[in-house]
UniProtKB/TrEMBL annotation:
A GO term, aspect molecular function: efflux transmembrane transporter activity
Annotated source species: Acinetobacter bouvetii
Gene name of the record: mdtA
Ranges for domain Multidrug resistance protein MdtA-like barrel-sandwich hybrid: 31-175
Protein name, entry field: Multidrug resistance protein MdtA
Signal sequence range: 1-17
Length: 266
């Protein structure tokens, strides 16, 4: 979506003199506290307060010596294919033996029991091969699980943005518990969220998709964005008699930052 910019002389906006307006805020699309999905020791932080971050970038590393060892062991098991080779060799030998026993039994050179024993030996060899293949497949699944556990020790950025705050340092204990041991606070900066609190009496006048004008506070009040509302609350806040409406825009479509106040003009 493209947003037009109007260059005006002042925040008083004389061209909107008779237009209804509401106080609003320009904020990052998301502000997130980053925590570790597992309990452990913070080994390394790759960013600090003020750092610009990209989606998928590694933010922090949790100590993972045990997980690395488990992953290496699991990988080794996936490469151990001796049991499969042995079972295949047994099948080859047992197949030839069963064929000989069948011919000899037909000519009465060996007993029927000897032939049955050869058939049973072939069946056992096939069962051993199946078991060896199943064990190898299980080893592959265990390796993938070990890799997943190891990857959870690396914390990645969920979006493009900036590090707002660093709470702790390398050597600290971290964990997934809500409200405890956050590592970082990050904000998404490639999108802005603009939200206005509107009195109840305007509820039927505000519609999703409606075009409004956003006037940021000084010194950015010369740049006005024309946008469409992408959400209008359908539940009224009973205590204040208000509801909210707003939109999300790309940050590069406007010439003002997030974290500022604004006015929304209908």
């Amino acid at each position: 979506m493209k947003y037009s910019l109007l260059l005006l002389a002042g925040i008083s906006c004389p061209i909107f003199a008779n237009t209804v307006n509401f106080a609003c805020m320009v904020q990052p699309a998301q502000i997130v506290e980053i925590r570790s999905p597992v309990t452990g020791t913070l080994q390394q932080l790759h960013v600090k307060a003020g750092s610009t971050i990209k989606k998928g970038q590694i933010l922090a590393q949790i100590e993972a010596n045990v997980e690395k060892s488990a992953t290496q062991t699991a990988y080794y098991r996936t490469q151990v294919k001796g049991n499969v080779a042995t079972a295949q060799s047994k099948i080859t030998h047992a197949t030839k033996k069963a064929e000989r026993m069948k011919q000899l039994s037909a000519e009465n050179f060996v007993s029927r029991q000897a032939y049955d024993d050869a058939i049973n030996e072939l069946s056992q060899a096939r069962a051993e091969l199946q078991l060896a293949k199943e064990n190898l497949k299980q080893a592959e699944f265990e390796y993938k699980q070990s890799q997943a556990d190891l990857n959870r020790r690396k914390i990645y950025s969920p979006f493009n943005g900036v590090v707002m705050q660093q709470y702790i340092y390398a050597g600290s204990m971290v964990g997934p518990t809500e409200g405890k041991n956050p590592i970082l606070k990050i904000a998404q900066t490639d999108q802005f969220k603009i939200n206005a609190i509107i009195p109840l009496k305007y509820f039927r006048s505000i519609k999703k998709g409606q075009v409004v004008k956003i006037v940021p506070e000084a010194p950015f009040d010369k740049f006005i964005a024309t946008v469409k509302l992408d959400h209008v609350d359908q539940v009224i806040d009973a205590s204040s008699g208000t509801f909210s409406a707003g939109t999300t825009i790309l940050s590069n479509s406007v010439k003002f930052p997030s974290g500022i106040r604004c006015k929304m003009y209908l």
